[in-house]
Amino acid sequence: MFLQGTVSLRDGGNPPLTPTGVETATITVYVTKNDHTPYFINEPYSKDLEGTIQLGASVFHVTARDDDRLLFGSVRYKIIGDDLAPTYFQIDENSGMIVTKNALSGVNQNQFKVRVEAFDGGSPSKTNVSVVTLTVKSNNQRPIFNQQSYFAHIPETQSLGQRIIAVTANDSDALTPFSDITYSLVGDGTATVYFQFDSSTGVVSLRQSLQPDTASTYNLRILASDGGCPPRTDTATVIISVQRNLNAPAFDRRIYYGTVLEQDRIGRPFTKVTATDSDRQAPYNRIIYRITESETSAINYFYLHPETGHISLNQCTNGTDNRFIFNITATDGGSPPLSDHALVDVEVKGCPKCRTNINSPRFFAPVYFVNIKEGEYSKNNLHLIQVSNF
Q: Looking at residue 100, what is its pLDDT?
């Protein structure tokens, strides 16, 4: 755009004088206006950065254009936000190159929104804004177990592969793989022989039967590692106590003697057997008694209470024997159980009544038919049937 006009030149005389040969001149004025606003090209802007990037390193290049001419078409840049972005990044005013201003390695922030303003040479200048998203891949945090020691109690008969306990660690890094955690079993002693570990869930289970071993405690060291390179780690301890059936029951004597009268009431205890088990935990110290082998029919005539150890008559001996010797067993609650054995010697004392009154009366036939004549009869001379007792 331009403006054009004619100018004449003369002095202040009377009459005025004019330049020789030139009476007028033409003046052209060109007008430059700031018509356009800068605009960014190739948006949107984003980039991933390593947390170890060096101070002053180039990060990202932004470009803006302005369709005006001359001064109004020149574009410069500045960072105006957001949050901590101006603290850690700066931009070259003329080129639009963003560089690091402070180290990123200690920053617990995984993403920056760098707000860049492009402005032209007008007065006032025209501006436009774009945001550069910079994601910092920095392994700032290490995994942390929610407790440093874990405890579990299992029987020596624990099933293979069955869950015993699970450990948990957390990593406060916001991005993968730095927030990803894997677990590993690193010892101690024979623990790695008998136990296994799920690297993703943190579940501890049994790899091999514990029964061939005698240890009552196993210490497992668990390592939690994140996905950094190199990874950051934390360690916890899992202490597993094994409940073992170490001791067998023991009778307090090898032979028990007892005396019972043949006419004693059935079910009344006449002697007692006793065994103890040194194991401290149930069911390994729980004892069950039973009658086992016998050369006599003792198991038919005597009852051994499985919990109290009392022995009583189960039925009348009817004078068949006057002495019974039989084996008894005390068994604990292990799997397999441990046991001990003893003998019981019982003398049965009879009485004259019991010795003579052995058999019950019985009829010769189940049904009797009798024909009698009409007449006088008394109870003394009426003999219709006969009963035998032998």
A: 95
